[in-house]
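fyi for ur records
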Amino acid sequence: MKVLSLHSAGHDTGVAYFEDGRLVFAVETERLTRVKHDHRSDVALRHVLEQECVDTDGIDLVAVSTPVRSGLLRIPDMDRALERTAAGDLHHRTVCEMLGRRVECVVVTHEVSHAALAAHYAGWEEDTVVLVNEGRGQLTRSSLFRVSGGALKWVEKDPLPWYGNGFGWTAIGYLLGFGPSPSVAGKVMAMGGYGQPDARIREQLLAVDPEVMNDRELAERVRADLAGRPEFDSGFETASHVVATFQEMFTGAVREVLDRHVTRTGDGVGPIALGGGCALNIVANSALRAEYGRDIAIPPACGDAGHLAGAGLYALSQVAGVKPKPFSVYHNGGGESRADVLSAVQGAGLRAVAYDRSEVAGVLAAGGVVALTQGAAELGPRALGHRSLLGSPEVSGMRERMSEKLKQREWYRPLGAVMRDERFAELYPEEAPSPYMLFEYRLPDGTAPEARHVNGTCRIQTLGPDQDRLHGLLDEFEELSGVPALINTSLNGPGRPIAHTARDVLDDFAHSDVDLFVFDDLMVRGDSAR
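which gave:
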């Protein structure tokens, strides 16, 4: 069966193509347009349909998450589809006009698409509790599902209070002057490490009328009231205490909901999966994993970009009866030809030479910064070695250089690190690995100080030998420097999405102080190294 899967409307749109349960190709719109959170799904759709690996004439089924860009799919009973999903149906089966013909179509409720992706990463294990938590879905801001008999069952809608979901993070960001962008929550969360929970702030936040989630005028009155109180002053120190307090409240609220629904056995609790943008909250994820003493399944593209796969996974598993196959996170686009890389390099006035791992490791050990691309990019917001900026976490000033100067991010935001599985197991023998950089770990004293957040933790990506280029580079870097990890942060300039092509990388960084660029089996010395 050949399935085209779309997230067609809203922010972070994208399109995927499945064949016989296997994800063949996927792409997020923003990677093609370089407009962050881009909604123009027609761009991604055209790109996917142009790929040689996509059988446009053989598509059997189209799956789309709500909301739906109806002009793109031309669904004749779109009103009926929205009526049914708004009433709580998990999906609506219909037809759409695609590629000059009618094709069967499954309209998947927004929350259900998130849940299907999370359940997929949990292996559809029986009795998995799936919490979808975001700013706003189609029907809810948070939803509780359970995998039962191989099917998704919607258990509870909006079980979380206002301070337990994405709305709350958006509200705190707005209160502190960060504006309404989908990127705000990540910026705000980073402040919490600099503050301490405050009982006075907690009391005032608990007193907020829960109707703020549904009444904009009330929400604005509450914001104005809080903004006038000294505990909510927008100065950094005060704001950090607000965020630390809110983080504690958020984590506690999520834990209380899961406590009511997890399956308890003599060995502990049953499987748990998290979906929706709030599953990117590393502090909460780590606290929950420690609390329940088990790993938690979280898709790396747990935000709205994940719908490009989630809708198709639901249609395959729950409608067509096809068991989807596991897929790599490295499925965003299809990589780049050598000819295109060389064209981009020459256009930037630079010269490419053959990749030399020893030279790259030497540049890093000497305190240089390397921009690395290889193959297809990662799905989701985490750079996991296929579109990464790398630097030594032992070189003084490296955090400032990479985060503040190269990427022009706020000074207080943390950086992640990548570490080989075997070194991680030595440092954290009792801890589960983190291949998608979705958990934090307390760094031993003296280890990777430039990747250490103010609270002593680091969000670590663990890397197996299947990622041979970066794994080998880490090995050689450690031989030269004695350092078991590299700073790994996303490869994008200020305010831009992660770079997708060599041209994107050079547009962002060709005239910066990046020392070396790696494009698959080619490398290019930067301006500062020539």
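The longest helix spans residues 236-261. thats all i got for now
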